[in-house]
Amino acid sequence: MGAQQGLVHIYTGTGKGKTTAAVGLCVRALGAGKRVYFTQFLKDGSSAEISQLRALGATVDIPPQQAKFFAAMTEAEKERCRTAQQRALAGAVAAAADYDLVVCDEIMAALALGTVKLDQVCALIDGRAPGCELVLTGRGAPAELVERCDYLSDIQCKKHPYEQGIAARRGIEY
């Protein structure tokens, strides 16, 4: 772990680019010889950047996820989802003790669904090692987290090809 002070980043908002910004920071940190831990909430790990993060030396830990939206899940599937999200959070908490950069991608979505709790995320922020840089992404960052962060990027969608019927493209949107 580096000697410099670790800060907290939040990438939130309705626009495209929150995960992209987090991955870019991972690449930069890896290029500087830093240890990087990356986990995702409510995603299945199939996005194109995941294999590249691993190839560059990041520790990527993505618990098995359901392929459907939370609202469409049975109660048993929802419970498995909650367990997976808690595992992702526990991994991030452990990593925050000795990694230089920890990314919790889409943790705001997990908060919104209640699969992780606000007090748990606050404990992650407050309990990380002094040199651990922490990145939290996802729409709808709650005020309690915004107050604790050092960087706040509110990425807004002004125009998106989806509005013109263009589907998400591998390697661009995922």
UniProtKB/TrEMBL annotation:
It holds the Pfam family CobA_CobO_BtuR. The keyword Transferase applies. Keywords: Transferase. It comes from the Bacteria. SUPFAM superfamilies: P-loop containing nucleoside triphosphate hydrolases. One of its GO terms (molecular function) is corrinoid adenosyltransferase activity. One of its GO terms (biological process) is cobalamin biosynthetic process. Its EC number is 2.5.1.17. InterPro entries: CblAdoTrfase_CobA, P-loop_NTPase. Transmembrane segments: none annotated. This is Cob(I)yrinic acid a,c-diamide adenosyltransferase. It comes from uncultured Anaerotruncus sp.
